[in-house]
Amino acid sequence: MIEDRDRLASSEAREAALACVEAGIEAGRPRTVVREAVSLAGETLRVADATYDLSAYDEVRVLGGGNAAAHVAAALEGVLGDRLDGGVVVTDDPVETDRVTVREGDHPTPSERGVAGTRALLEAANAASEDTLVLAAITGGGSALMAAPAGDVSLSDLQSTTDALLESGADIGEINAVRKHLSALKGGRLARRAAPATVAGVILSDVVGNDLSVIASGPVAPDASTFDDALAVLERYGIDAPDAVRERLERGAAGEVAETPGPDDPAFERVSNHIVADGMTVLEAARDAAIERGYEPLVLSSRVRGEAREAATTHVAIAEEIRATGTPLEPPAVVLSGGETTVTVRGDGSGGPNQEFATSAALSLAERETDVAVAAVDTDGIDGATDAAGALVDRATVEDPDAARAALADNDVYPYLESRNGLVCTGPTGTNLNDLRVLVVR
């Protein structure tokens, strides 16, 4: 799974960190979680705790998108076989499927091919009837991949707004409040298109707290955010949005454009959503891997958020306490956390939240001469807009603290970590369940 793993695993602690990363990602792969959550017995389809009588439907189709959507579709084909009649998913990680059409898009910035794929997805949703069972394969990354600019908003308007939001330090809920109100699909509008079909969401969550309306911008979930909320995000972060974006949001706030459908909307009368994997899925598997190697595990939280470099300082402080006092547990220990940190971009470099977390952690370890290995990765294999999943560091990573500080100041940690042989590269992993951070304390 991890490129150049032998070189990265240069110590027992570093090897343990990589083993936890691999176990976490493997546990979140759709072929694993769908096999556990979805089954077919005769005419009865089980999705998590819900059951569906297939004899009540003329057709069963898969619709959706996200980094792992094609893998979910392939796993659903494995369960349903010839009971599945087709469908469309949009992804940046295509795999071979027999019945579901896989359309490619781009992440984290929407693209023209993503728009074309989403157009096909919307057409398939429009064709659904009350005799259709839609299995909505929704995973992280869907907000960018399922691009459907609404009204007079163009793709370039959407791209520039998305890029500005991603660099602003806004959290995913704030970013998606804007994206939902610029889209013909997000914020429950895909469910509205598919109505009156029965919709069963098969969802892999990459969102802290598993808010259905935020995962992939909630295409089949009720939305409580408003045009006013979207405008407030632009103001809060000083986003200089294109005229068409601001005009649409202002018209919506004035009541001239229909709001996204809320919980009482009839579009959701036949919709149920099922989260089959989330950040805790990853953490539990990483915890088990730590135990197998003789480490005492501590799962801090699956909901860590905030500025990446600041979160790193706090995590390192916990590792230091373990080494110094055996509190809150005795070493050897592994500290684990999930969630989604952010980066407020002020420089002009390359990197991502997990790479900034790792660089900040390495700097703290070097300054205090603390012997801890730290891995931080995005489980989809794409940290920021780079080809790295994240990084693996220890105190030896930083020889020149000033160079590390300069890389952080310019948000240019990717080349710094590359020069220090710290990057962790996996390629697309087939899942997206948010970030995983591992601190190994010998």
Automatic annotation (TrEMBL):
The lineage of its organism: Archaea, Methanobacteriati, Methanobacteriota, Stenosarchaea group, Halobacteria. GO terms for cellular component: cytoplasm. Residues 17-250 form the MOFRL-associated domain. Keywords: Kinase, Pyruvate, Transferase. It comes from the Archaea. It comes from Natrinema pellirubrum (strain DSM 15624 / CIP 106293 / JCM 10476 / NCIMB 786 / 157). This is Glycerate kinase. The keyword Kinase applies. GO terms for molecular function: glycerate kinase activity. PANTHER family: GLYCERATE KINASE (PTHR12227). Residues 334-435 form the MOFRL domain.
